[in-house]
Amino acid sequence: xxxxxxxxxxxxxxxxxxxxxxxxxxxxxxxxxxxxxxxxxxxxxxxxxxxxxxxxxxxxxxxxxxxxxxxxxxxxxxxxxxxxxxxxxxxxxxxxxxxxxxxxxxxxxxxxxxxxxxxxxxxxxxxxxxxxxxxxxxxxxxxxxxxxxxxxxxxxxxxxxxxxxxxxxxxxxxxxxxxxxxxxxxxxxxxxxxxxxxxxxxxxxxxxxxxxxxxxxxxxxxxxxxxxxxxxxxxxxxxxxxxxxxxxxxxxxxxxxxxxxxxxxxxxxxxxxxxxxxxxxxxxxxxxxxxxxxxxxxxx
Length: 300
Hints:
Elements: H1 3-19, H2 24-35, H3 46-60, E1 62-67, E2 72-78, H4 81-97, H5 101-104, H6 120-129, E3 131-138, E4 147-160, E5 163-170, E6 176-180, E7 184-193, H7 202-205, E8 220-227, H8 228-236, E9 244-248, E10 252-259, H9 263-270, E11 276-280, H10 282-297
Antiparallel strand pairs: 1-2, 3-4, 3-7, 4-5, 5-6, 8-10, 8-11, 9-10
């Protein structure tokens, strides 16, 4: 059996039991139906499934147990559903990219710069072992395209708007800063240990941020009016985890967020054009108004 088939079967079992608990016969039927669409055979015996349950627990930290009262298998513990979902997405993308050349022309990829994920493993190692790292860094706003040498104490890795960032403490001034992985080169991991700042909590630091910028503005309750079409899009791809729907009709949606009204957040609102309007606070409404007027002046 190929490793690809082995991993895919695990993910299919997790996917099925997340949607609804079921008995082995229903699960077996689901796996058979997947076989119709793929080259691999996912049909399994009861013994193989019991082995899979143990492996899923060890690899993904997801516990599957048999509910004797309901006579179904169910997930009783899931350490991080978001991370497992990302793993599933990545594997599905791998499946698509690894298909034969005859189908490759039907898969259209965006041409973009590397995300710098080749440094993920090394940086995670440095975070885990609390050792400093050095690298060359190129800023977006440096028109001379010069790369500066940086030595930092890595604290966390954060994804924001489809990019990865290193959150680190600057060895010179002690400030907490972010560095885009796509602008890092010549990464070197040292053997010099550092003391992880006791007051730093990555989840808390970015709890109310949009994107990567934090500490620029205090979080506020923000209400937005959106057209029905834009509202449907934002409902499927939320702007922030605090987002909740206040009201909606056939023509409009009003939602509320508790987030820092940072520059990144304003740029996101401006990108929606006439499909969004800030209802509150007044301070954010005025900032957006000014930026729209400045943009209009460019076309006079």
